[in-house]
Amino acid sequence: MIRVLASLCLRAVVVLTGAALATFALLWHAPGDPALAIALARYDSLVPADVVDQIRVEAGIDAGFWTAFQAWLSPLLTGDFGQSSVTGRDVWPELMTALSYTVPLALAGLLIGITLSVPLALLATRKAGSWLDRFAVGLASLGAAIPAYWLGLLLILLFAVQLGWLPAMGARTSAHLILPALTLGLGVAASLTRILRSGILEARGQSFLPALRRRGVAARDIERHHVAPHAAIPVLTVFGLELAFLLEGAVIVEVIFARPGLGSFLVDAIEARDFPKVQAVVILAAVLFVVVNLLIDLVYRGLDPRIGERDA
Amino acid sequence: MLNVDGVCVKRGGKPTLQGVSMSIAPSRTLAVVGESGAGKSTLIGAILGMIPCAAGTITWNDAPVRRCKPALVMQEPRSAFNPRLCLRRSVMEPLVAQGIAVDAAHLAALCQGLEISADLLDRRPSQVSIGQAQRVGILRALIASPPLVLFDEPLSALDAVTQKHTARLIADLQQNVGFAALIVTHDLGYAAAFADDIAVLRAGRIEELTTAQDFVTAPQSAYGHTLRDAAFALGALEQVA
């Protein structure tokens, strides 16, 4: 177990370093002068060349790629995300403020996704091929086909403009969370329903199940001990990927519904070439992915000991 | 005693068993042979109640056969177990589910008869050989002491040496425990050596039902002759004859 954990942690370090390096390289080599972009964001107008040069020195841009990367990475290892190149303020508190809007939205979206997909998949798999199954598959396919930005606009038109039940823009009250969370959650529900349905159907087709039924094992026990663990494996895999969808979706949804959060934080930082801010978001997302996938990897081993057997 | 009387089965509108009749007394073995598609597996499905009969009856001691809870040993031993669980759990689960106490002495005797060590049961199906998995499959079939055991090609996944060894173990256990056995097989050599009687099934009908010795020396039907001669040509019946 210690060897497995060590191997998983080593993989996590490689992924995090790769993500940090790739993002830094992309920003560094993006067209245009990064010092000029920071100056424009900082002073909101054209500035003299000597000011731009001063910013270049301040931000470490003149020192070359590897020196600048090292200068940014070293404090990060102690948990210091540095200061914004534009405002000069610490990145961490600003990032936390943005997250305080995005995390509830992502969690609400996930909750809606799970609440809708689990009963729908269970209903669909009661009788594969029935009208209910076809309805569920159709609904899930439709949900997966509709992009979040279009669904968001449709929901705004219906519930905010036509019916006037819910607010469309901003984040002042909890009611402001409903439409963005629905937009996010319906997409999650669509993909989870499809994968849950196929996972359950595949698990119910395992060759050893008829023998258990014949030997008098109750249907409920078969579902709990033999079908559910098998069906959970693809669901967990998709769940890990859904995390990417949730973050990416939350950023898009925040723009549609004019909500503050990680979306506007990231877009503003990229426009201003605010390296520390962009890097903070990327590192945070990478850490989140790595931790969730590490946990999923461990849960896999609990559900199917053969996975650990192959690694041994 | 198992009594199969005039059983007809239709699948997809086509008859797959037509008026099949046979009987097996306790401690006796009937081997059902025939080409692929003859209806051998359908017969097992019908006896287990998994495939409904269009006509005829299947009884054990004049009661519906399902009451005697016949056991089945499958052709593919590894796929008969949950690959994620240890074999011990797969063997015990049906008993635990039905609240049947496991008789430790009975388990130990069966394990000894089948040459199954305690540590073998603590492994998963992927951690044992096919021969070992098949022996555990037989253990699972016999653990609840069923009076009737159905074997669906029990040796076909095994190599020749393991086939012979497993066949011997099954025969010895039957002598000790006394269950009635129905063996579906393509292997005429195995059928002739270990079964008391042989039924030749062709296109859903019983072509002949005779003792194993008579089948080897003088088959009653033309198709029986063909099967017997083919087995001789392949050397499968030489030892028995």
Secondary-structure topology with pairs:
The complex is a heterodimer of chains A (312) and B (241).
Chain A: H1 2-28, H2 34-43, H3 49-58, H4 65-76, H5 91-124, H6 131-145, H7 148-162, H8 175-204, H9 209-214, H10 219-256, H11 262-271, H12 275-303, H13 305-311
Helix pairs in contact in A: 1-12, 2-3, 5-6, 5-8, 5-10, 5-11, 6-8, 7-8, 7-10, 8-10, 10-12, 11-12, 12-13
Chain B: E1 2-11, E2 14-24, E3 29-33, H1 40-48, E4 55-60, E5 63-64, E6 71-73, H2 87-97, H3 104-113, H4 118-121, H5 130-142, E7 148-152, H6 160-177, E8 180-184, H7 188-194, E9 197-202, E10 205-211, H8 212-217, H9 222-233
Parallel strand pairs in B: 3-8, 3-9, 6-7, 7-8
Antiparallel strand pairs in B: 1-2, 1-4, 4-5, 9-10
Superfamily (CATH H level) name of the domain at 100-271 in chain A: MetI-like
Largest sheet of chain A: none
Mean pLDDT of chain B equals 87
The overall number of domains of chain B is: 1
Q: What is the 3D shape of chain B? A: globular
Walk across the major sheet of chain B and give the strand order. 6-7-8-3-9-10
Q: H/E series of chain B, N to C?
A: EEEHEEEHHHHEHEHEEHH
- CATH architecture of chain B, by name, is 3-Layer(aba) Sandwich
Which sheet architecture does the biggest sheet of chain B show?
Answer: 6 strands, mixed
Shape of chain A: flat
User: Count of helices of chain B?
Assistant: 9
Strand content of chain B: 15-25%
Helix content of chain A: over 70%
Return residue spans of chain B where pLDDT drops below 50 for at least 5 consecutive residues.
none
CATH fold annotation of chain B: Rossmann fold
The level 1 CATH classification of the domain at 100-271 in chain A is: Mainly Alpha
Calculate Rg of chain B over CA atoms: 18 Å
Structural class of chain B: alpha/beta
Which regions of chain A are unreliable across 5 or more consecutive residues at pLDDT < 50?
none
CATH class of chain B: Alpha Beta
